[in-house]
Amino acid sequence: MPHVAVPPALPGIQGLLVGYPGSGAVLSTLAQTLLRGDSPLSVPDRELIAAWVSSRNQCAFCTGSHAAAARHTGPEIAARVDAVLANGPEAAGDPRLTALLHVAAEVAAAVAPVSDTAIQAARDAGADDRMIHDTVLIAAAFCMYNRYVDGLATVAPPAPEAYDGMGAMLAQQGYVRG
Amino acid sequence: MPHVAVPPALPGIQGLLVGYPGSGAVLSTLAQTLLRGDSPLSVPDRELIAAWVSSRNQCAFCTGSHAAAARHTGPEIAARVDAVLANGPEAAGDPRLTALLHVAAEVAAAVAPVSDTAIQAARDAGADDRMIHDTVLIAAAFCMYNRYVDGLATVAPPAPEAYDGMGAMLAQQGYVRG
């Protein structure tokens, strides 16, 4: 049972965004900016970074929903998401994305400078300042969303299928409702 | 040296907010909403929660700037901030704030439900749903800001006095410039 009252039919962060609309609006705008706004990283790559960080943090709701959102951007992406979540960054099949997923994992693991080794590997694979910046900020933001969702003990549907509809909606409409 | 190019005269998050203005605007609005917007928690209590989480995460820039912001809200607050940062939540001199600082420390430590014990202690000390919600979200948000600032290896001025001017400005003007 969640630690605070939320609308009962809305799992995970959904109940928090609706039940606490003042912060909810800004948190939705931040997700939209980071995952759909201007960036040299593709939407599927950004959704995969979000799902990967959430997976490292063992946040079931955020992993399920962002993995589903990434999967709904295309069949070849769906295979990549499944491979990375099962087998780690090397399974991404794209050296630059692999290197950025390692950067993201370091951000999730500790409040500390990302290692020079991980930054250099990302640069060697073609990442520029903006890609490194966006990766670190997305990873940091999911360390917030994950803690918000799990810290307040919100409900995460156990079945992977429960996230499929959410993922389709996020892939099609994004994070800010018109 | 920071991992990405930032305006050289701006330490900590300041260079990131200016150098990456798309995300910077939303991150500033989020700080304004959480630390200055509608909440049953006072501004000094919220700044202290931000400084305390940053201190737990050993983020020197965020600890220094938010402790300074809290201190600039009044002399009795300054003594409380110094006592909590030196000696922990029991030194807050306010049982409800002490309990909420323990909740915040749990959020900083792990992506996991805050313990029933910590939540019950906060309720026993008079905290309602909204206070618990706001505490968890502020703590989670600083787990993001701390990782953004330190992950990208931004510069944190070593001298405590360097934060005094920042704190005065944040106390007087908040996080969104007019």
Could you characterize what this model shows?
Chain A has 178 residues and is an all-alpha fold. The first copy, chain A, has a single domain, classed as AhpD-like (Up-down Bundle), CATH 1.20.1290.10. Chain A has 9 helices and no strands. Chain A has helices at residues 12-19, 21-36, 43-56, 60-71, 75-87, 95-109, 116-124, 129-151, 162-173. In chain A, helix 1 (12-19) crosses helix 2 and helix 4 packs antiparallel against helix 5. The mean pLDDT of chain A is 96. Chains A and B meet through helix 2 and helix 8 of A and helix 2 and helix 8 of B.
Summarize the structure in short.
Two copies of one chain form a homodimer. Chain A is built from nine helices and no strands. Chain A has 178 residues and is mostly helical.
Task: List the SSEs and their pairings.
2 copies of one chain form a homodimer.
Chain A: H1 12-19, H2 21-36, H3 43-56, H4 60-71, H5 75-87, H6 95-109, H7 116-124, H8 129-151, H9 162-173
Helix pairs in contact in A: 1-2, 3-4, 3-5, 3-6, 3-8, 4-5, 4-9, 6-7, 6-8
Work out the number of β strands of chain A: 0
Intertermini distance of chain A: 31 Å
- Helix percent of chain A reads 55-70%
User: Average pLDDT of chain A, to the nearest integer?
Assistant: 96
Question: Key terms for this structure?
Answer:
AhpD-like; 178 residues; globular; homodimer; mainly alpha
